[in-house]
Write a structure and sequence with these properties.
The chain has 303 residues and is an alpha/beta fold. It has a single domain, classed as 3-Layer(aba) Sandwich (Rossmann fold), CATH 3.40.50. The chain has 12 helices and 9 strands. The protein has helices at 16-27, 39-49, 63-77, 100-128, 148-168, 186-194, 196-203, 215-228, 240-244, 246-249, 252-276, 282-287, and strands at 7-11, 31-36, 55-57, 82-85, 131-135, 174-180, 182-183, 212-213, 232-235. The strands form 2 sheets. A 7-stranded parallel beta sheet has the order 3-2-1-4-5-6-9, sandwiched between helices.
Length: 303
Amino acid sequence: MSLDGKVVFITGAARGIGAAVATESAKRGARVSLVDLEPDHLADRARQLGPDTPHFECDVTDFDSVRAAVSGTAEQLGGIDIVLANAGIGTYGTVEKGDPDAFLRTIDINLNGVFRTVQATLPHVLERRGYIAVVASIASFAPLAGMSSYNASKAGVEAFVRALRQEVGFRGVDAGLVHPSWIDTDLVRDAERDLGAFREARSKLPWPLKSTTSVEACARAIVDGFEKRSSRVFIPRGAALAYWLRSLITSDLAERATSAEAAEMVPRMEREIAELGRSSSERTSSINRLPTGEAATEAEVPR
């Protein structure tokens, strides 16, 4: 599928992965619609892409907000061919000691926000027999301790897209999952700075689960997936190995093998989070202050 003239609707488009995908899509001839919570960054990104680039301040936890962005895009650009549901957050915390509100907020943005985005855009995509991509994660099938809400949301996204594919595939619409490992974004660097236990746990992961990919390379892979209407995009490509070995990674044997390390790492992580006094990076928390102290943001976070 050539992107020339196609309309690409991107949530979480102000910075990070979403912004890079917008730039790469525009380079290939697409017309992009930028959707995000950060109006200033959103406007700056739109100006960089061209004066006629539509952009909409939007909260994916608010259905009316999402529908308004979709309607505005269709009105200004004539329809929607491709959707990238990218907006998401990640929070720190174990099941026992994590902030319950932060857990629920993460699920609402990362999973329910994807549903709102897809349902609102689907009539337009069906009309054009287009393509829907959803940013999942390696965490969809390789969860890490201390990020239960993120793991759960991304596993839910995996099941959601697999069901969606069956529901709309016979009508000419393709749906794909994007599975990034570690992407070199501000949020990934913030998480490693905040939590020494998390940084150490990542360093012990086998290749390719611990490798880092640039935002630009990530965007190229995602936009290649648009053109190929891919069912799955792994970033880096070697991360596909983790998918094919997922039964082993999540087996009882593997969990027993890591239990001794978890006995030291989990309490350390809980202490570090308690000392931080927050369950997400300072950058994330400052984007949109909420009663829980959490925030929606534009980019994917540590997987």
